[in-house]
Design goal:
Helices cover 38% and strands 13% of the residues. With 815 residues, the protein is α+β, with helices and mostly antiparallel strands. Among the domains are: 92-282, Biosynthetic peptidoglycan transglycosylase-like (Penicillin binding protein transpeptidase fold), CATH 1.10.3810; 345-447, Nucleic acid-binding proteins (OB fold (Dihydrolipoamide Acetyltransferase, E2P), Beta Barrel); 451-613 and 634-734, 3-Layer(aba) Sandwich (Beta-lactamase), CATH 3.40.710.10. The strands form five sheets. Strands 4, 5, 6, 7, 8 and 9 form a six-stranded antiparallel β-sheet that branches. Helix 9 crosses helix 10, helix 13 packs antiparallel against helix 25 (718-733) and helix 17 (491-499) crosses helix 23. The radius of gyration is 37 Å and the shape is elongated. The protein starts with a helix and ends in a 23-residue tail after the last helix.
C-alpha cells in the first residue's frame, strides 16, 4: 500500500537546510576574500619591503674599526673608545666545543629549521601562557643575526616584520655555517666585547681555540642577558647559566657523561687579557682617558674613533692608581663618620623567597638592574636585620652575615626599631656593602665627592688625576670643571703679593677681630671670624700663615690693596674674573679649580716659574708614527718667570714651616720627610675642604665637598678630610724617593734675626707692623723692633714688580 503523502514530503526540498548552507557558503566566500586580500596585501608589502632590505655582502665584509686608545706614560692602557672590539675568526677557526655550546644555549634546531623555529614558537607560547609571563623566547640564531646587524632595538610591528623578512633573506642567500660564523663574530657579550673570540680574551685571557667545555658554556650563556650573565658583573648568575648550558650540551649529545662531569667540576679562573677593558683596566684612569678623548675629539671630531689613534698621556700608572685609592678611601672614611642616611630603597621581599634559589636570583636581577655596584662597593639585599646581626644576599649562592659590633655600630641607628621608616634597615632593604679583610661593612653609597690632581712642577706634566668618587656615576671631572671657593688655600698667594709690597715674614700684624660697618661696605656689615673664634693680640706674617689666621690675612690684603692682589693672582694662572677685588678675597671668596691650585703651587715649588699643566705627551697613528708631540714650557725658561725668585724662595720656606709647625704639621709627621710644604683650606661653614702641598718634584691638590654646596659638618676641615687623601697618595708615590734639599737662597735676600728681607726693603725700611698701635721705645726694645713709626706703616712697591707688562701669566690655563 502506497503512502503518497509521505512520498510527497520526501520529494519536497528542505527549507531548514538551505539558509545554513547559504550561511556557510557566504562565510567561506568572506574568509576566502579576506584571505585573498591578506595575501594581496602581504604580497604588496613584500614587494615593497624586499628590495629595501640591506645587501648581505656587507655582513661578510669584516673591516672592524680600530678604536682610539689611551695609555699612561709607562704604556699601560687606560681607555679605549670606539663602537666595538672584535677578533674576527672564520668558521673553521672556531672550535667545535664553542659551536656546540652556542647551539645548545641558543638554538639547538638551528640546522633543521629555515630561519624560524615554529616548534620553538609554539613551545615558548605554551610555556609563557602557563607561567602567565614571558619566561621564554623563540628567537633563532638567524633572527638574532638579522636584528643585531641591521635593525634597531625599538619594539614595533614594522621592525618585527622587517626582521622576519631579513631572516628569510639571510637563510636564502647564506649557508648555515656562514650564518653561525656571523653570529659568533658579532654578538655582544658584555664589557664591549663583540664575538666569542673577543669575549674569551676579555673573560679568560686566552684565545678562543683554548677554551674548555666549561668555559665555552659560560661564554655561551652570556647572550641571553650580557649585563647580568657575564662572569665579571655577576659571577653567581653566570655560573648558574653555565650549568644550564652544560646540561643542555650533555642532553643533546655534545658531551659524554665523563666530559660533562669534568666540565661541571672545573673551577673557572677569571683573567682578562692585557689590553682588554673587562671589569675595568689594570688601573683606574677613567677621568684621564675621558679628558684625553675630549681633547683629541676637538681636533679630529668623530673620525678619531676609527683611525687607530693612540694617545700617550703624562700620567704614571703607579701614581694614578695611588690617587684613585686615596680618593676612594678618603670619601669612604668621611662617609663612615657621617650619620647613616638609610638604605638605597625599601622593597617588598615576599616571605620565603630566599628558600627558592631561582626566585631569589630573579628578584636580585631587578635589584642589580637599578642599583649597580660601584667599584668595591657592592649592592646587596637585606634578608633579615637586627641590632646584632644583618643577613644579606648577593645571589642565592652568596649569603653574607654581618655580626661585627664595630661594623654594626656605624649603622646602629638604622637597626633600631624606633628609626624613621626611610632610614631603617630591614628585610627588603637595598644597601651597599664593602669587604675589608675577612669582614664586611654596611656603608651607604657616598653623596660627598672628592677630586685629586698631581703634577710635575718642572713642566706641568699631570702625573695623576681623579675627578670624582665614581666615574661611571657621572663623568663630571671636578679637577677641571668644578669651580669652588678655595678658602685658606688662596692665602699663600696673597702673602706672596705682600712680600713684593714691602712686608716680610717678620712683619707684626694684629690678629684682633676685624669688622666693616654697613656704611663702609655699602650693603651689610662684615664681621669675619677666625676658625674657632680664637684671637691673639699679634702674630708675625709667618705665624699668621702657620696658623691660617683670617684676621691677619684680611689686614695684609687691606694693606696691599685688593686690586693689586687680584692682578697678582693672575701670575699663578688664576682667572682674574673669578677673583673679586674685595677684602673677602683674602679668605678665598673667589673661585678656582683643583687643577688651577695645583698649577699655582707649582710656582712656589719650582722657584717662581709658571708652567702650564698638560695631559697629552704625544699622539701616534695606527702605524706608530708620531702625529702630535707636546712641547711644554719648562721651569728655568726666562719667558715663564711669574714672580720674583726671592718671593718664591721665601714662600717655599714659610710653607715648609706650615707643614712642620702649622696646620699641615700632620703631613710631615706621617710622611717623615723634611722636604714637604703645603697649606690647608676650609671655606665658611666647611663647605669646601682643601689641601695643597708639594715636594720640589711633585705638587698635588686634594678637594672634598658636595656637588651641591652644603656644609660637610662643623668639625670637618681641610686638614681633617682633604689632607689624608694627599698624605695617602704621597706615602705611596714617595716611597723610596730620597728627600730633596731646598733650592739655594737667591741673591737679594738679607737675613736678620733669622728672618728674610728683600734688599730693597731692609730692616728699618720694610713694613714692621700692621693694625697695631704705635710702639714706644720700651715696646720696641722688648719686641726687638727697629725703624721709625713712619716706616712701620709704609708700604713700598719693589721696582719692576707688581705690573703685568703683557706677561703670559695673565692667560687662563689651557691643556
Amino acid at each position: 500500500m502506497s503512502k503518497p503523502q509521505n512520498s510527497s514530503k520526501k520529494d519536497k526540498p528542505s527549507k531548514s537546510g538551505s539558509p545554513i548552507l547559504r550561511f556557510f557558503v557566504k562565510t567561506g566566500i568572506f574568509f576566502a576574500g579576506l584571505f585573498l586580500c591578506g595575501v594581496l596585501l602581504a604580497g604588496m608589502a613584500l614587494a615593497l619591503a624586499w628590495p629595501n632590505l640591506p645587501d648581505l655582502n656587507a655582513m661578510t665584509d669584516y673591516r672592524p674599526r680600530v678604536p682610539l686608545r689611551v695609555y699612561t706614560a709607562d704604556r699601560v692602557l687606560i681607555g679605549e673608545f670606539g663602537e666595538e672590539r672584535r677578533n674576527v675568526l672564520r668558521f673553521n677557526e672556531i672550535p667545535d666545543v664553542m659551536k656546540s655550546a652556542v647551539l645548545a644555549a641558543e638554538d639547538d634546531r638551528f640546522y633543521q629549521h629555515g630561519g624560524i623555529d615554529w616548534a620553538g614558537v609554539v613551545r615558548a607560547g605554551l610555556t609563557n601562557l602557563i607561567n602567565m609571563s614571558k619566561t621564554q623566547g623563540a628567537s633563532t640564531i638567524t633572527m638574532q643575526v638579522a636584528r643585531n646587524f641591521y635593525l634597531s632595538s625599538e619594539k614595533t610591528y614594522s621592525r618585527k616584520f622587517y626582521e622576519l623578512l631579513l631572516t628569510f633573506k639571510i637563510e636564502s642567500e647564506l649557508t648555515k655555517d656562514q650564518i653561525l660564523e656571523l653570529y659568533m663574530n658579532q654578538i655582544y657579550l658584555g664589557h664591549r666585547a663583540y664575538g666569542f673570540a673577543a669575549a674569551s680574551r676579555t673573560y679568560f685571557g686566552k684565545p678562543l681555540s683554548e677554551v674548555t667545555p666549561a668555559e665555552a658554556a659560560m661564554l655561551a650563556g652570556i647572550p641571553k642577558a650580557p649585563s647580568r650573565f657575564n662572569p665579571i658583573s655577576n659571577r653567581p648568575r653566570a655560573e648558574l647559566r653555565q650549568r644550564y648550558v652544560l646540561g643542555r650540551m650533555h642532553s643533546l649529545g655534545y658531551l659524554t657523561e665523563p666530559e660533562y662531569k669534568q666540565a661541571m667540576a672545573q673551577p673557572i679562573v677569571m683573567k682578562s687579557a692585557e689590553g682588554t677593558p673587562a671589569g675595568g683596566y689594570s688601573i683606574h684612569g677613567e677621568y684621564v682617558a675621558e679628558l684625553a678623548r675630549q681633547l683629541l675629539f676637538n681636533v679630529y671630531q668623530d673620525n678619531v674613533y676609527s683611525r687607530g689613534i693612540n694617545i700617550y698621556t703624562t700620567v704614571q700608572s703607579k701614581d694614578q692608581e695611588a690617587a684613585y685609592r686615596a680618593v676612594r678611601e678618603g670619601v669612604l672614611e668621611y662617609t663612615r663618620r657621617a650619620p647613616y642616611p638609610g638604605p638605597e630603597e625599601q622593597l617588598d621581599l615576599p616571605p620565603g623567597t630566599e628558600n627558592n634559589p631561582q626566585a631569589l636570583d630573579e628578584f636580585l636581577d631587578g635589584v642589580f638592574d637599578k642599583f649597580g655596584d660601584s667599584g668595591d662597593l657592592l649592592t646587596a639585599l637585606v634578608l633579615s636585620a637586627s641590632p646584632t646581626e644583618v643577613k644579606l644576599a648577593r645571589s642565592s649562592r652568596e649569603i653574607i652575615t654581618v655580626t661585627d659590633k664595630k661594623v654594626l655600630g656605624v649603622v646602629a641607628r638604622a637597626l633600631n626599631d624606633k628609626a624613621k621608616p626611610d632610614q631603617r634597615i630591614k628585610r627588603g632593604s637595598v644597601v651597599y656593602i664593602r669587604k675589608f679583610g675577612d669582614n664586611w661593612e654596611i656603608i651607604n653609597l657616598p653623596a660627598v665627592q672628592a677630586a685629586f690632581v698631581a703634577l710635575s712642577p718642572q713642566d706641568g706634566a699631570i702625573r695623576a688625576m681623579v675627578g670624582g668618587f665614581d666615574f661611571y656615576r657621572g663623568n663630571f671631572n671636578r679637577v677641571t670643571q668644578a669651580w669652588r671657593q678655595p678658602g685658606s688655600n688662596i692665602k699663600p698667594f696673597i702673602y706672596a703679593a705682600s712680600l713684593e709690597r714691602g712686608l716680610t715674614p717678620a712683619t707684626q700684624i694684629s690678629d684682633q677681630p676685624f669688622e666693616l660697618t654697613a656704611a663702609q661696605t655699602g650693603s651689610k656689615a662684615w664681621n669675619p671670624k677666625n676658625y674657632g673664634n680664637q684671637y691673639e693680640p699679634m702674630l708675625t706674617l709667618r705665624q699668621g700663615l702657620y696658623k691660617s689666621k683670617n684676621m691677619v690675612s684680611i689686614r695684609i690684603l687691606q694693606a696691599i690693596g685688593p686690586q693689586y692682589a687680584q692682578d697678582y693672582l693672575t701670575r699663578f694662572g688664576f682667572d682674574k674674573a673669578r677673583q673679586p677685588a674685595v677684602l673677602p678675597l683674602a679668605l678665598g671668596a673667589g673661585s678656582v679649580t683643583p687643577l688651577q691650585l695645583a698649577g699655582a703651587f707649582s710656582v712656589f715649588a719650582n722657584g717662581g716659574y709658571r708652567v702650564t699643566p698638560y695631559l697629552i705627551d704625544r699622539v701616534t697613528d695606527s702605524n706608530g708614527k708620531v702625529i702630535m708631540q707636546s712641547k711644554p714650557v719648562v721651569a728655568g725658561d726666562a719667558a715663564a718667570r711669574a714672580i720674583d725668585p726671592r718671593t718664591a724662595w721665601v714662600m717655599d720656606d714659610i710653607l715648609r714651616g706650615v707643614a712642620t709647625y702649622g696646620t699641615a704639621a700632620r703631613a710631615r709627621v706621617l710622611l717623615k720627610r723634611n722636604d714637604i710644604a703645603g697649606k690647608t683650606g676650609t671655606t665658611n661653614e666647611s663647605v669646601d675642604a682643601w689641601f695643597s702641598g708639594y715636594t720640589p718634584s711633585l705638587v698635588a691638590t686634594a678637594w672634598l665637598g658636595f656637588d651641591q654646596p652644603k656644609s660637610l659638618g662643623s668639625r670637618e676641615t681641610g686638614g681633617g678630610v682633604a689632607m689624608p687623601i694627599w698624605v695617602d697618595y704621597m706615602q705611596t708615590v714617595l716611597k723610596g724617593v730620597p728627600e730633596e734639599k731646598p733650592r739655594p737662597r737667591p741673591d737679594g735676600l738679607l737675613v736678620e734675626n733669622g728672618e728674610f728681607y728683600f734688599s730693597e726693603f731692609p730692616p728699618g725700611q720694610a713694613v714692621a707692623r700692621l693694625g697695631l698701635p704705635e710702639a714706644d721705645t720700651l715696646g720696641e726694645f722688648l719686641n726687638g723692633l727697629t725703624g721709625s713709626t713712619s716706616e712701620e706703616t709704609r708700604i713700598k712697591v719693589a721696582p719692576g714688580v707688581g705690573t703685568q707688562n703683557n706677561a703670559p701669566w695673565s692667560q687662563k690655563i689651557p691643556f
